[in-house]
Amino acid sequence: MKNRILVLLMLGLTINAIGQFSTGVSGLAALNTNIKIDTTPTTVTMTLKGNSTRWLGIGFGGNTMATTTDMFIWNDTADRDYTLDTSSNSGHNMPLPDADQSWTIVSDTVIGGIRTIVATRPLVSAGDYTFLNNSSFIQILFAQGDTTTLAYHGTSNVHNSSQITRFFLALEDFSIDAPSLYPNPTKGNFIIKSKTCIDAIKIYSQTGAVVKTIAIEIPKEENEINVSDLASGMYIVELQNGEQKSYKNLMVE
Q1: In the predicted structure, residue 16 carries a pLDDT above the cut 70
Q2: SS (H, E, C) 143-200
């Protein structure tokens, strides 16, 4: 029992030291809008997609304007980091740009009328929402405007709040030579390719339930798996070669 506790403690320390977590791609209420938040022990990376002709706002840490503590807003100015003005009007005043702009824009591209923004910042930034590098949920608020000029979103534009959950990006198990899995995300079939033969495959839900078992009659290095019968979401794929096992994350769209 003591050895088991020690192993769990060491695993926890390892995850905290080098582990990474992700929300995966989470849809927002408006058409063609989604967000993905990834964290490492030091940095958060946000990928935000939405209509290129509108300002796009994400609030962190609350489910209303009055409770949200920090905001990222893409608009036609250079400011991206905002704090909500809660001094009056029940916290519904226009957000104010921070003097210290903590977000760094890595890329900002528009394809087919959809803007994709990739931005990073430290997990901890003075005066801003503190991101944790673990599997806790993140409370966000989403809003968009009529144009790229920041203004009241109005009642006709979609705005909502949601909790987005995260999963652990597992530490790679090299015991069976770090298999690759593609395409990921998948809409049906995906391929597992390894330098050793895989003789058993199981797919688990995020709650740990086995949702699919694939029998490999002839162990081989490349296997094509069909998961079109699984609901959309994140899964864990267990690969086995004799007594050796490896785990990969799989997103089914």
Answers
A1: no
A2: EECCCCCCCCCCCCCCEEEEEECCEEECCCCHHHCCCEEECCCECCEEEEEEEEEEEE
198-249 pLDDT, tens per residue? 778 888 887 778 899 987 777 667 788 899 999 988 888 888 876 666 777 8
The answer, yes or no, to whether the previous bond of 179 is cis (omega within 30 of 0) is no
The label of the residue with tokens 């080098």 reads: 18
Are the CB atoms for 130 and 123 separated by under 8 Å?
A: yes
CA angle 82, 92, 86 (to 5 degrees): 65
The closest of 141, 133, 123, 1 to 65, measured between CA atoms, is 141
Say which residue the tokens 């920041």 belong to. Answer: 150
Task: Pick the closest to residue 128 from 165, 97, 159, 166 (CA basis).
Answer: 97
What are the beta bridge partners of residue 34? 27, 49
Helix or strand run (H / E) with residue 10:
helix 2-18
To 10 degrees, the CA torsion angle through 219, 224, 227, 233?
A: 100
The four Cα atoms 135, 234, 231, 56 give a dihedral, to 10 degrees, of 80
Supply the pTM of this predicted model: 0.63
Summarize pLDDT for 119-146 with one digit per residue, the tens: 999 999 998 999 998 888 999 999 999 9
